[in-house]
Amino acid sequence: MPKKQYKTEEIVLSKKSKLTEQAYLYTFKFKDPKKKLKFTPGQFVMLSFAGVGEAPISVASSSREASNTFELAVQNVGVLTEYLKNCPVGKVLGIRGPYGHGWPVDKIKGENLIVIAGGCGLAPFRALIKYLVEEKDYAKKIQLLYGAKDSQNMFFKKEYQDWAEVVETHFALDTKDQEVKGCVSLDEGLVTNLLEKDYVERDAYAHVCGPPIMAKFVIEKLLELGYDEEKIFVTLERRMECGFGVCQHCAIGPYYVCKDGPVFCYKKLKSIPGIIEVGT
Amino acid sequence: MKTKELKEKFSTLHKKYEIFAPVRREKRLKTGYINTMSCVELTAEIPEYSYKEAFFPSRQTMFKYKGERFTKEGSLKREQVVLGMGLADLRALELYKRVFAEDEYFQNRIEKSVVVGFGKSPLSREALAVLPFDLFITQEEDESYKFLSRTDRGSKLAQELALEISEDIEESKKDEPFPVSDFYQQIKSNMEGDKAAKVFEDLGQKCIECGKCTMVCPTCFCFRIDDEQGFEEDEGTRKRVWDSCYYHEFSEVAGGHRFLDTTKDRIKFWYYHKFARIPNEYKMLGCVSCGRCTKTCPAGINLEENLKNIFDSSKEEGNKK
User: In terms of domains, do B158 and B210 share one?
Assistant: First the structure.
């Protein structure tokens, strides 16, 4: 049976707040007051800009309740994001979705979780972190290991203090330019180095998002430290046109990143050549 | 019925329907939408282009936009007759029916199409029963024509043209009517196990990435979605456009990174799609052996030869051990 797979809902840009020099947190609301976005943390939407096109962007707001408003954290990297950056509040855009499979929220219930993010890779975690902060005792111990170039390039800086009660945060900056509020530790160096610290839970789920090269080294380190490959989850970036596994752009081996991912269990990925090649 | 009479019967079909059919231009048999029936050539020869344009247009308008408002477009205005599809192309259509099962644009075109197949006798009825045609024309050994109907739509068209149906073909009820043979099972497993590295290393040196094979291939269906500006700055159309996995931009993400960065990677992606991903996902092979890719390749790449080499790649590995 045919479905309206490409139907785009009108949304209004209602707020824009600067995250870094190159990134904003955008708040949107559906033009239709009855429409709500129901999604799970780690899922994405296709953001549409008439005349420019579409781009897959993970939802950054809390997923706890379906809502008429939602947030997207967007790094300015391509054509559409450049347009978005210059968008005035009140501008009408479109979305379709949500699509894909996000973080395995059910699995981490009552378990330890380490979240490992690099740069704008913290964006797909915000929905998860907000969920865990709102559902206080959902997981056992939650640690966030976040790496960035310097404090100027960190996402969601104003929120770490709000997360602190539930999330223990440790940061690694390439250049430690200034102190950051709300963290337990702040080191200079790579996020991979943080993994070796004694304070990091060893019996835990590990969720990873960052540039491909970071994800590779992080997963390598996690395996070396004895983390169970079934408990390692990573989100992948690929070009996407349709969002539901037809257009072929995001195909990796037998999977589609848009439909079967973007969050994958490492165990599922390890046999696919060229995706995350540990030890090469 | 002989050729002359057949031509007469079909001569005014274009007045009622859009016609997509094989036509010969400058000695080359192609396919396309036509305005007059006199140029149609019904033949068992495989046309250079496939029939996919009729069901999955190379530039499908999906929406038009004015300001920020999108309005759905892209429905066929008239019914169409897709004429002369051979067995291979009908098989490719069956794959599309699976791939685009939920796609409103494809389904709209299918609903408005009468699919007329063509082939030379003898043809196995079992083979015909699994193919998605409405009406089928067979050319008998004595050059006469017979008409087989498989659907009400086929019978209706036959009635309109005063064609006598010689046989009704019953739709097959088989669960998996297109089993993947042992030869292709081995190719699938070699692709999945990345056994044929050497084959792709060589192909990577040979292929010039012109994308012609993907354009003429009746099963290639990857696409991108493009916004096309109209005359006014705030209006235009959103289109679904055929893409090709041989093009550099196919895997490019914002920021410029390409996940399929070499010719070798991209050509392997194509073979993996046809011979591993499609069989897993759609329970049939992603190749209908029409031979168009080999015929059209300016670099002389031969699919059949490559398949033999991919098949052999697991044996070679065994010998090495």
Answer: no
